[in-house]
């Protein structure tokens, strides 16, 4: 394969050989193809797209470029969930114990956050002593014995994707549907699950801001998953306002525990139940999504899922007493109210801005070496559709410094308050199999 020929083929919209895609991924990962040629290929894909077979081949090759987790030692159908990212998204902490309580194994490899808040691993480390670095044998044993383990991703998982994504980030080729889909799915394939539920977010706090783009991404990822032998389902859910009422690491863990207690915000509970239901179907526990939802709700109401979560925290080194008393996870030094400047109805909350504000308080990291403050974040007192009076607190900043007037104004400006209430957006737009 000559790289210049591959670039020319894709530039002209031709279908390229699968073997050439595999060779490109292997040689680029090994440093034998220069960045300028990989950039040219990424730009050609950006403009010409990829055929289904090409996207699947790219995903498979990137998954095979580094470590791949072999879960065959775990009995049963291993299920995983992936979210395309949002603000206040803490469903993993709810649906994982729900699914495990039903006897369906959840072997989850998660990452750290880079952006407005921490990732799943960062949030779990809000429990002092929680171990996210597990050797493979221990990880497999936990899932086999207790049906749940969540660990940090290995450093050599999909190195081709890491290298190509860094290149796309500086060549204006991030927004390419097949490259986005292959990036996401390569990590899921390498993580070894038999079945994957994708939570594809839509709205101002999501990567895909409109429904058509989200549907295109979901369809592409589902097609890739199925072509590579994985049962795959996508749920398209709303991210035009933050999910739940709390944004920040320990704050989100506390809210997840509230839901596991049978309390907490309705949107977090309903989305978690729906995603868990799909996982239960794929795991062979129930026949359909309605039965899965009913089972998930039972496990929330009778406390079974909460017990699984408590035991999971203890087995991985955290203090289970903090699940019973989540307020002991700690809090920031200052709680600073954000007050409405007029009366009316909340018609929109710019989710991305709320996320950025939490990040600027210290809840996230701008570079991978930044430290995270587990206790800071934002609590929303009003959500879309709710009435507010002038002077009412609409949100509270949990901060470890007192002078955050600029962020108070930034959060206030993230709210739109109108005389008339707005038609609520659906929590779930559609589902694809």
UniProtKB/TrEMBL annotation:
Top-rank taxon: Bacteria
Domain Pyrimidine nucleoside phosphorylase C-terminal: 345-418
Cofactor: K(+)
Record key words, sorted: Glycosyltransferase, Transferase
Quaternary structure (record): Homodimer.
Family to which this protein belongs: Belongs to the thymidine/pyrimidine-nucleoside phosphorylase family.
Name this polypeptide is given: Pyrimidine-nucleoside phosphorylase
Organism ancestry: Bacteria, Bacillati, Bacillota, Bacilli, Bacillales
């Amino acid at each position: 394969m000559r790289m210049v020929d591959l670039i020319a083929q894709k530039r002209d919209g031709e279908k390229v050989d699968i073997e050439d895609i595999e060779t490109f991924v292997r040689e680029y990962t090994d440093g034998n193809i220069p960045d300028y040629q990989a950039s040219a290929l990424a730009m050609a894909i950006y403009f010409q797209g990829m055929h289904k077979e090409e996207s699947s081949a790219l995903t498979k090759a990137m998954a095979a470029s580094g470590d791949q987790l072999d879960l065959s030692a775990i009995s049963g159908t291993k299920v995983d969930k992936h979210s395309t990212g949002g603000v206040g998204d803490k469903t993993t902490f709810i649906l994982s114990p729900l699914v495990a309580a039903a006897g369906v194994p959840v072997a989850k490899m998660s990452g750290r956050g880079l952006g407005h808040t921490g990732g799943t691993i960062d949030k779990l480390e809000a429990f002092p002593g929680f171990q996210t670095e597990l050797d493979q044998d221990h990880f497999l044993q936990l899932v086999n014995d207790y049906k749940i383990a969540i660990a940090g991703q290995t450093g050599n998982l999909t190195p081709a994707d890491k290298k190509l994504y860094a290149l796309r980030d500086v060549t204006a080729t991030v927004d390419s549907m097949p490259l986005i889909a292959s990036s996401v799915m390569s990590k899921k394939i390498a993580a070894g699950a038999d079945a994957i539920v994708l939570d594809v977010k839509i709205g101002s706090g999501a990567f895909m801001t409109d429904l058509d783009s989200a549907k295109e991404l979901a369809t592409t990822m589902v097609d890739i998953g199925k072509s590579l032998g994985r049962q795959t389902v996508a749920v398209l859910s709303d991210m035009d306002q933050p999910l739940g009422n709390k944004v920040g690491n320990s704050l989100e863990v506390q809210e997840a525990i509230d839901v596991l207690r049978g309390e907490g915000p309705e949107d977090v509970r309903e989305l978690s139940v729906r995603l868990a239901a799909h996982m239960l179907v794929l795991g062979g526990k129930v026949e359909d999504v309605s039965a899965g939802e009913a089972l998930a709700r039972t496990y929330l109401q009778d406390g079974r899922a909460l017990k699984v979560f408590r035991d999971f925290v203890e087995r991985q080194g955290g203090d289970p007493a903090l699940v019973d008393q989540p307020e002991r996870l700690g809090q920031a030094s200052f709680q600073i109210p954000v007050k409405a400047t007029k009366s009316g109805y909340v018609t929109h909350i710019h989710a991305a801005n709320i996320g950025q504000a939490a990040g600027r308080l210290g809840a996230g990291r701008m570079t991978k070496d930044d430290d995270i403050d587990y206790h800071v974040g934002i609590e929303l007192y009003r959500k879309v559709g709710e009435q507010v009076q002038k002077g009412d607190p609409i949100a509270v900043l949990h901060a470890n410094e007192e002078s955050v007037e600029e962020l108070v104004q930034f959060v206030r400006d993230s709210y739109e308050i109108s005389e008339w209430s707005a038609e609520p957006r659906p929590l779930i737009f559609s589902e694809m199999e």
